[in-house]
Amino acid sequence: xxxxxxxxxxxxxxxxxxxxxxxxxxxxxxxxxxxxxxxxxxxxxxxxxxxxxxxxxxxxxxxxxxxxxxxxxxxxxxxxxxxxxxxxxxxxxxxxxxxxxxxxxxxxxxxxxxxxxxxxxxxxxxxxxxxxxxxxxxxxxxxxxxxxxxxxxxxxxxxxxxxxxxxxxxxxxxxxxxxxxxxxxxxxxxxxxxxxxxxxxxxxxxxxxxxxxxxxxxxxxx
Length: 222
Ligand SMILES: NC(=O)CC[C@H](N)C(=O)O
Known about the structure:
Elements: E1 2-7, H1 14-23, E2 27-32, E3 43-46, H2 67-76, E4 80-84, H3 86-93, E5 100-102, E6 110-118, E7 134-141, E8 145-147, H4 150-158, E9 162-167, E10 183-187, E11 193-196, H5 212-217
Parallel strand pairs: 1-2, 1-3, 3-4, 4-11
Antiparallel strand pairs: 5-8, 6-7, 6-9, 9-10, 10-11
This protein binds glutamine.
Pathway: Purine metabolism; IMP biosynthesis via de novo pathway; 5-amino-1-(5-phospho-D-ribosyl)imidazole from N(2)-formyl-N(1)-(5-phospho-D-ribosyl)glycinamide: step 1/2
GO biological process, one term: 'de novo' IMP biosynthetic process
Main location: cytoplasm
């Protein structure tokens, strides 16, 4: 399993992401934003951070990075792409995923563990989990408030693109940022491009607070 982790100026979760995938047995390469070679991966990961300082909007400038041409081609050919937090924002800004990520309702940066419920597992990413499973994963964002128009949202439900929702420990809806339907993670129609605001790569060891991230990332190794 070969994973390429894209690094933009301001990315700050690249090393955690590399470490997490290596822990699961992957060979991981970094790819700098102005390169044009993805290094032949099985999975491309856009990690979290503050690409271009979040100027304009999170992900709005990274979208124009040279390497995004290759990421788009890779995704169009069916290659697997995962965007975590800022990476999710970049994928949305690049129109590889539907909707938009706007400022949290509170207008505050939120950093804490939060429960998530698996809404759909009929995809490679969440294939190690069951529908209804609850995981506890860190969130750390200022612009995680997911918005999408009603028609697109309906299509997303119909084609199993809504994957994860924020909830409390019992699975009841608990929305930290105002996202429509408390959505925390989605995929594209072809189920090869995934994005989520929470950070599975930060939940890989019980001594650091939890290892539910393993169950999530392991899906890509099937
Ligand atoms: N942890 C992250 O990737 C943060 C994403 C983005 N900078 C935000 O605050 O919303």
